[in-house]
Amino acid sequence: MTFETTTHKDVRNPGALSRMGSRIGLANWQGLSTLLWKEVRRFLKVPLQTVLAPMMTTILFLAIFTLAFGSGERYVGEVSYANFLAPGLIMMAVIQNSFANTSSSILISKIQGNIVDILMPPLSAAELTLAFVLSGLARGLTVALVVGLVMWILIDFSVHSWAAIIFYLVGAGLMLSLLGMIAGIVSEKFDHMAAMTNFIIMPLSFLSGTFYSIDRLTGVWYQISHLNPFFYMIDGFRYGFIGTSDSSILVGAVSIAVLDILLYIAVWALIKSGYRLKA
Is 95 within 8 Å of 209 (Cβ atoms)? Predict the structure, then answer.
């Protein structure tokens, strides 16, 4: 009798059957991978805008600054200015594109009214968060790979630590994807998104030591630079190439890991509560 009653309830509730069929263990891997692939395809369908345009912008920054300061004549420490600048530009591209991917996806879905199509499937808040974050990371890594290959042709690159390069690349991509999700959730129109990008993301990325060594700063500006999480991303990533850094690599790694965890919890809580997602 118990078996018949349970079956009858499941038939009346197709969502229950869907959850039973798609879940393996404790997670809905099928649904998670489907949403992830949908988000990855979203930016791959417009590569001129999402991949090649950031690559061109980054190369232009490299050309302008190396020509202005003379890459063959100016050195930062024991490395040429071009070798110092290139890793920072790659990381800046990752920062901007990881943020743009998740923030634009969520905000556009809210404005078009199809966010319900993402919230209705049997995906938990943790699974939704993970799918969006990994898609933002995928775009950031794709841009980093394309930009890195072009710079490798233009500049005599050397690698000091692959572990540092991979860790900071992934850590930065995750952090900016999570920040992008928060921005997409709290924003109600494109003006709000533009304000966050222009007044928070861009200043933090440009004032993070991308174009200069913060050892040149003094007093309060030197202290403020060490409060900027983007500085640790760029400094650690640059260390992976040139073998020197302006701060402790361990402190930077721990700071990024802790911030990624805290941001993931914050995004999970926002999605769980339905804040500005549910009508």
Answer: no
Block residue for tokens 């743009």: 100
Backbone angles phi, psi at 73, to 5 degrees: -110, -30
Segments making up each domain of the chain, as ranges: 28-273
Q: What is the pLDDT of residues 30-72, one digit of tens each?
A: 999 999 999 999 999 999 999 999 999 999 999 898 887 765 5
Give the max Cα distance, the chain.
85
The Cα–Cα gap between 111 and 137 comes to 23
Per-residue pLDDT reduced to its tens digit, 121-154? 899 999 999 999 999 999 999 999 999 999 999 8
Is the pTM higher than 0.90? The answer reads no
Residue with tokens 């992934």: 170
Q: Exposed, middle or buried by CB within 10 Å (0-12, 13-18, 19+), for 217?
A: middle
Cβ atoms of residues 136 and 99 within 8 Å: yes
> Residues with Cβ < 8 Å from 76, sequence gap 6 or more?
84, 213
Are 136 and 176 in contact by the 8 Å Cβ rule? The answer is yes
Question: Backbone dihedral region of 27: left (phi > 0), alpha (psi from -120 to 50 degrees) or beta?
Answer: beta
Residue type, 193: M
